[in-house]
Write a structure and sequence with these properties.
The complex is a heterodimer. By secondary structure, chain A is of the alpha+beta class. Chain A contains 13 helices and 11 strands. Chain A is globular. Classes of the chains: A alpha+beta, B alpha+beta.
Chain lengths: 297, 150
């Protein structure tokens, strides 16, 4: 590895001897790591719990597109949404937080609701989805004792105003393109490892928010188990669809895919980022523009 | 008792192969748990990630999904053989066994091998699963989508 740099303890390597430094590379997405650390009452996080590893016979870019795509949940995740809706007693039995059930049901939102989740695209292919919890996809705040205690610990560290601001960061996946997807709220990240043009491994890691109670760490593990395991009711359908897309694209039927959805509504922001609505293909356009730029250097 | 317990785990495996998932779910006690840890020395789901850790309530969702036509990762459906052998029974209704699962789906064959622990309980004369723990020999390896229970 030609260069190694770290950002607040997260170590990155680059095979390119020349190029932007890490801070410049991360740009607007450094905030995803900041927010994860801010969410730890002791101000630090540590890896724990080992890792989960997923594999699919498809191109690595599909994972990064899918992580910020809000058109697919209604079709791809229909079976887990309906299974959750059909089991109200299961929802009630899912612990005090109902975190798992909530996650399954969230995928059942319709396009107009997903459209309220803004996509923020930054130079370098980085993208995050904002407004996730505010839109009611997953409850932003909870009233259970575990969460109340955690909030109190965070207020002790930051004061009421900053603690509220830290918890109000309502992004879901934060993509540091082309390799990392960060979920600050659930203290997890996924690292994409391309093995071949049609073979990819994704490693899922999670973090202990130091200073928080063990119950919070257990919620992190539960979220990652349910959302990101190869046996997950959600992720397994994503993996299946990646493989189908790969087979379809290798066929001779078409050379081009239309990714213009939402293009006319892209809004350039003063900080150089671009804002689009949840079901826009802004993220895909943005990632491929970056890919083309890297490949033609 | 050994015969009864062995018959129970063999039938449990056959119900999965026959895709009788609701009947399979019914074998679990109300507080029953289906667990596939990532580490063979893992003593609890609180210390490390798990491929699956599902109390019956969540397992019911898994089963409900397996019965839906729009579960993409089971369209087409898998055909499986759960080969259970080396069954050992202990006095307190614990059954240890070796498991090999052969799976055929959409032109691909896959194999899984695991040690399995069943912790059982007698409820109104019927045996019920309190814990089914499956330790895959390659639990830390990258896995493609896993849809059919072990």
């Amino acid at each position: 590895v030609a260069r190694v740099e770290s950002y607040r303890g997260f170590v990155f390597g680059s095979h390119a001897a020349q190029g932007p430094g890490l801070a410049e590379f991360l740009g607007g997405l450094a905030s995803a790591f900041d927010n994860m650390l801010d969410r730890a009452p002791a101000g630090t996080v540590s890896r724990f719990g080992g890792e989960l590893r997923l594999e699919y016979r498809g191109n690595w870019k599909m994972f990064m597109e899918n992580a910020v795509d809000l058109v697919h949940p209604n079709f791809v995740h229909r079976s887990s949404v309906e299974a959750a809706r059909a089991q109200p007693q299961a929802l009630a039995a899912d612990g005090p937080t109902q975190q798992g059930a909530q996650m399954f049901l969230a995928n059942g939102m319709r396009a107009p609701e997903w459209d309220k989740v803004p996509l923020h695209a930054f130079p370098g292919g980085h993208v995050y989805m904002g407004g996730f919890y505010r839109s009611g996809v997953i409850a932003p705040e909870r009233a259970d004792p575990v969460y109340e205690r955690y909030r109190a610990q965070l207020v002790e560290r930051h004061g009421a105003e900053k603690a509220a601001a830290v918890l109000a960061v309502d992004r879901f996946n934060n993509l540091v393109w082309p390799t990392v997807s960060v979920n600050s709220r659930f203290a997890a990240l996924r690292v994409v490892q391309p093995l071949a043009a049609d073979r990819t491994v994704v490693e899922v890691q999670c973090f202990r928010l130091e200073g928080a109670d063990a119950a919070m760490h257990e919620l992190t593990l539960q979220f990652v188990n349910l959302a990101a395991s190869p046996a997950s009711l959600v992720a397994s359908d994503d993996l299946e669809l990646f493989e189908r897309c790969q087979r379809g694209l290798q066929g001779a039927a078409s050379d081009w895919i239309d990714v213009r959805r939402g293009a006319l509504a892209d809004r350039r922001q003063p900080d150089g980022s671009t804002l689009g609505s949840g079901t826009s293909e802004l993220a895909i356009r943005h990632q491929f523009a970056t890919w083309l730029q890297y490949m033609s250097q | 008792v050994k015969d009864e317990l062995e018959t129970f785990v063999l039938r449990e495996a056959r119900l999965i192969d026959e895709r009788r998932f609701s009947d399979w779910l019914a074998l679990f006690s109300e507080d029953g748990i289906y667990w596939v840890p990532t580490r063979s020395d893992q003593v609890s789901p609180q210390e490390a990630l798990s491929l699956v850790y599902e109390p019956k309530a969540l397992l019911a969702m898994r089963v409900a999904r397996l019965e839906r036509p729009d579960m993409h990762v089971q369209s087409p459906a898998s055909r499986t053989v759960h080969h259970v052998s080396a069954v050992e029974v202990s006095g307190d209704l614990e059954v240890r066994s070796a498991l090999v699962v052969a799976e055929w789906r959409a032109g691909d064959a896959r194999w899984f091998a695991a040690r399995v622990l069943h912790r059982l309980r007698r409820e109104a004369q019927e045996l019920r699963i309190v814990l089914k723990r499956v330790d895959l020999i390659d639990s830390e390896a990258p896995q493609r989508a896993i849809a059919v229970p072990f």
